[in-house]
């Protein structure tokens, strides 16, 4: 897989998007496919063995010792939207919206909600698919194209640390602490000093991608700019695809983090048989393709997926069922 400075391969997709936006998913998902699938991103549910998860107010009143005791007992597990809807007494349907599923009040926090049975649900990650989940989806995608070994992956450029830039500080920091007081003092100064020099010149701040790619042409769509890569769609059908991704986060690995890579924002094969879109503000991934592909994805028990119609409204307030 390699970077593409010529982004014209995506022109066909841009022509199928709504610009200006008219309220449907087609600001980011192309028109013109026979069928569409919505794949729900999993949430996280936290529980305790012998009591409900405390509310924020209860937690604030607890001692530090109680905090530590609870921390050792928390059980965090993936949660499906179906499990979440059951816990909150709401209805899961293809166009459901998370904040409605968890009964978020007008001034409430939709991302962290306590269910009536005392469990705490954290909302799905937006715009990102776990590598193993993408591998499951990609296996279906590769089976429904005549060009599984030729296609394109587009990454939204705004993910922290992906591209380098001229500036006064990096887009992300890896905090380091030391038991040596002299070393720690040096680390403290390295954090503070840039803020004290208002007249310094901007310097190149390294990203995951090279400077050539960071400063290179973008695949531009309405409201979103992407870095475009050429490669085999079938590569993503491997659970360890991150190891060969050109945008593998090696700086993160240098700081002790396990291998990782941003999942593609958009993926399509040369024959344009389908398109996968993980829009950065969506808590689900959309696949546009044949009726057979959508049926296969929705029938896969490892995924929580539903067929949705063309012109589907996936906006924040679109859930008419759970009002």
Commentary on this structure:
With 323 residues, the chain is of the alpha+beta class. It contains ten helices and 15 strands. Strands 1, 2, 7, 10, 11, 12, 13, 14 and 15 form a nine-stranded antiparallel beta sheet that branches. It is globular, with a radius of gyration of 22 Å. Strand 10 (219-221) and strand 11 form a beta hairpin. The mean pLDDT is 92. The protein folds into three domains: 2-41 and 127-164 and 206-308, no CATH class; 43-122, no CATH class; 167-205, no CATH class. It has helices at 11-14, 56-61, 64-73, 81-88, 98-101, 131-142, 181-196, 211-214, 250-254, 291-299; strands at 2-3, 35-40, 43-47, 75-79, 112-114, 120-122, 151-156, 165-167, 203-205, 219-221, 224-231, 266-269, 275-277, 284-289, 305-308. Helices cover 24% and strands 20% of the residues.
Short recap of the structure:
The chain is α+β, with helices and mostly antiparallel strands and 323 residues long. The chain is built from 10 helices and 15 strands.
Q: How are the elements arranged and paired?
A:
Elements: E1 2-3, H1 11-14, E2 35-40, E3 43-47, H2 56-61, H3 64-73, E4 75-79, H4 81-88, H5 98-101, E5 112-114, E6 120-122, H6 131-142, E7 151-156, E8 165-167, H7 181-196, E9 203-205, H8 211-214, E10 219-221, E11 224-231, H9 250-254, E12 266-269, E13 275-277, E14 284-289, H10 291-299, E15 305-308
Antiparallel strand pairs: 1-11, 2-14, 2-15, 3-4, 3-6, 5-6, 7-11, 7-12, 8-9, 10-11, 12-13, 13-14
For the structure shown, list the relevant keywords:
323 residues; alpha+beta; 3 domains; 9-stranded antiparallel sheet; 4-stranded antiparallel sheet; 10 helices
